Amino acid sequence: MTTLRLVVVDDHPVVRDGLRGMLGTQPDFEIVGEAAGGAEALTVVEAVRPDVVLTDLRLPEPSGGALIRLLLERVPEVRVLVLTTHDTDADVLPAVEAGAIGYLLKDAPREELFRAVRAAARGETVLSPSVAAVLLSRVRPPKAPPSRRLSAREIEILALVARGRTNREVASALHISEATVKTHLLHIYAKLEVPDRAAAVDAAHRRGLL
């Protein structure tokens, strides 16, 4: 079993303690560092080079998108998973644009958090439903009625995901770019109101789409 090395970044000691205790229940997780602010996070992450950084957005500077961008500049292989209470455009968009692999809210169930950490380590995008809705609203034409019906292409992509294909393998099979696959997955998550690919496959099976 591969052990995932994690760093937790939050300016509240109680939150860090809670996350450390919760994540520590998983045999494949190892907390290798923590930080209370952006500057400390940069130092810790550069020193220990974890697989995944779980970070709040509003921290002693640098914070938000600026912190995410700096983390990825200094340790390009790290995956940054946002874990916060904020899901407004002003919070979500800069974080995603800066390169966050996922964005969860702190009220997410613990199993969802565990799944998100593992997915992030694999390079898969994970979003809370409300966050997916924010992103979808940015690409949907103004005043367009929301549609919850998956397109033929989205079902095609989801069927490949259900067979265990990675984003890269899906892109290759359908002769499209990996970025296009990720965009379709974001739309799927928003339409099905799910946070990640595993939940999307489950929801699609329950609705008879696959």
From TrEMBL:
Protein's recorded name: Response regulator transcription factor
Cross-referenced SUPFAM superfamilies: C-terminal effector domain of the bipartite response regulators, CheY-like
Sites bearing 4-aspartylphosphate, chain numbering: D56
Residue intervals of the Response regulatory domain: 5-121
Coiled-coil regions, chain positions: none
Residue stretches making up the HTH luxR-type domain: 143-208
UniProt entry keywords in alphabetical sequence: DNA-binding, Phosphoprotein, Transcription, Transcription regulation
UniProt-listed InterPro entries: CheY-like_superfamily, NreC/VraR/RcsB-like_REC, Sig_transdc_resp-reg_C-effctor, Sig_transdc_resp-reg_receiver, Tscrpt_reg_LuxR_C, WalR-like
Family matches, as CDD domains: LuxR_C_like, REC_NarL-like
Keyword S-adenosyl-L-methionine: no
